[in-house]
Amino acid sequence: MRHKPTFSLSTTHIIMLSFLCAIIIGSLLLSLPISSADGNSVPYIDALFTATTATCVTGLVTVTTASAWSVFGQIVILVLIQIGGLGIITVMSGLMILINRKMGIGDRLLIQDAFNLNTLSGLVVFIKKVLLGTFIIEGLGAIMYMLVFVPEFGIRGVWISIFNSISAFCNAGMDIIGENSLADYATNPIINATTSMLIILGGIGYIVWWDVIRVVGNGNRRRPFRQLTLHSKIAITSSLALIIIGGVAIFAIEYNNPLTLGGHGIFDKIQMALFQSVTTRTAGFAAIPQQNLTDAACVVSMLLMFIGGSPVGTAGGIKTVTLAVLIASAVATVKGKSEVTMFDRSISKSAVEKAAAVCTMSFGIMFASTVLLAAVHSASLIDILYETVSATATVGLSRGLTSSLNSLGKAIIIFTMYLGRVGPISLALAFSRKAKNNIIKNPTEDISIG
User: Fold this and answer.
1) CA distance 285 to 174
2) pLDDT tens digits, 15-67
3) Where are the domains of the chain?
4) DSSP H helices in 99-153
5) What is the CA radius of gyration of the chain?
């Protein structure tokens, strides 16, 4: 007796569809009159755009979050941000734990793939730690924000603080302060430090958290860095290097620009430059009007945006570890070495291939989006490129182009944000599966490279 083939979804399909479902449900809720600040339904394209940018934790907006949406609408947006930042698989797993539902092998495999873990053991504990750690950090961030926002806005400052803390940790870049994002607080050390730390902690990745805690908990203070896993070493050093290099570059380029850093004291210039370096790593809060940056600073910012944060965190981009592996591979090739090494450890061939594939896919999405947007919307090339890089890497910074997009332009950016969020993840998952061994292999032939 022949059995009919059963249709099953892979982890990649489940993740892509879960993001899509969240976006559609969110857009329908945001299109309701109750979600609008004035009681009139916003155009569906703007509701869809906002739901996408929130779920994909991007931050590009066609309407101002603070003035266009009611409290209900802002709550919907914040829920979408939290779901998008943690990942829908994490949220659903957390709900299963909350209602004491036992996880089956399928659920565990899904979590394992979603977080790219090497074992099925301890997954429930891992999810609990991720959720608990997230809420603790977001809570502490909200308290720090309240020191500034409550004296200024009164009781509304509590809601602003909670919204900003979750948005910053999830690297979403959306705020409900006003039209200028964080530009009015560009020289406020509390806002800068709190936002930067939330962005960094969210973007560094959960795996790094537990690894650092493990090393600290061991109590061995002798060379603690050497006790970290290779992944943590790469993520921490890459992130630190990018923040410093980006900050120094922005500081030097914009030092005398009267529209950005010029006119401020040396301390304020340093903190503003460092904040720009941090926020471009897929966070999207603007303390400096991006349209006032020089072309050179824009190029630096776009490079930082494209790289993004670290794996298994809330940030987007190709990821710091991806960049580090590609650089190490290039160095090994130039030196004629057959082995790619970092921190006295060998990098597997599959890791190098995965890094190349993720970078290639992200670049392809960005390139195609740039060409399409340039074809349907009239604007300077650097403004268009800034927009598409921001959307691909789910950053949210814009040079003022988003609000002026026509319907086709909005549709292109919506699609770009979605692909930018789920594309690299899906590709990484696809590569994490064991490749099939082909019995018949094609003949090998040398080609010229470079």
Assistant:
1) 7
2) 788 888 999 999 999 999 999 999 999 999 999 999 999 999 998 999 999 99
3) 11-117+127-431
4) 105-114, 123-153
5) 22
